[in-house]
What does this fold into?
Amino acid sequence: MENYIIWIGIAVIVIVFLVAIIGRYVTVSPDTALIVSGSFLGKGTSVFTDRENNKMKIVRGGGTFLWPIFQQGKRISLMSSKLEVAASEVYTRQGVPISATGTVIIKVGSSVEEIATAAEQYLGKETHELEEEAQEVLEGHLRAILGSLTVEEIYRERDEFGAQVQQVASQDLEKMGLKIVSFTIKDVTDSNGYLESLGRPQIAEVKKNAEIAEAEAEKT
It folds into this structure.
């Protein structure tokens, strides 16, 4: 009888141990990265080592076992975020105040280095904190580029204007482990009618061509 009780006790301990071990296996979806810190991280392309020789293991789209006591894991989202950026009444190179708005899609980079960089700065923080910091960087560069151009350059080369903002802002966002997926200038306005006056010749030309085409169509 005593042996029977002993074997039951051993079986219970083994089952509890196995359940605990199985519970330490963590799966990760493709839109999330698991940052594993602690000891026994091993080597390989998924292990990032910084200048101070601190290590972290990056796991995404799979799973890993976390050693009890020795390791812990935290998740960071790799999903994109849509931001609205704006710069109001920024004086251009000519001294004309211009306002601009844009839509930006950002995300944490996909490489081990980019994920590790983002983890060092944002792990444990809310997503909105990451978005707010990125928005400040983007709006700062939007204002800077606006101030370096003429109204004519902004009006006629809007795509180039947006590309300049994206190029300059990308350099700072890379230091945060982030990258710009897309950047689009939505609107450029001014309160003095400067942009409207630039558009009048084009509008007049379009109307003139339309009238000519209509007159020729009536002749046939």
Notes: The longest helix spans residues 194-219.
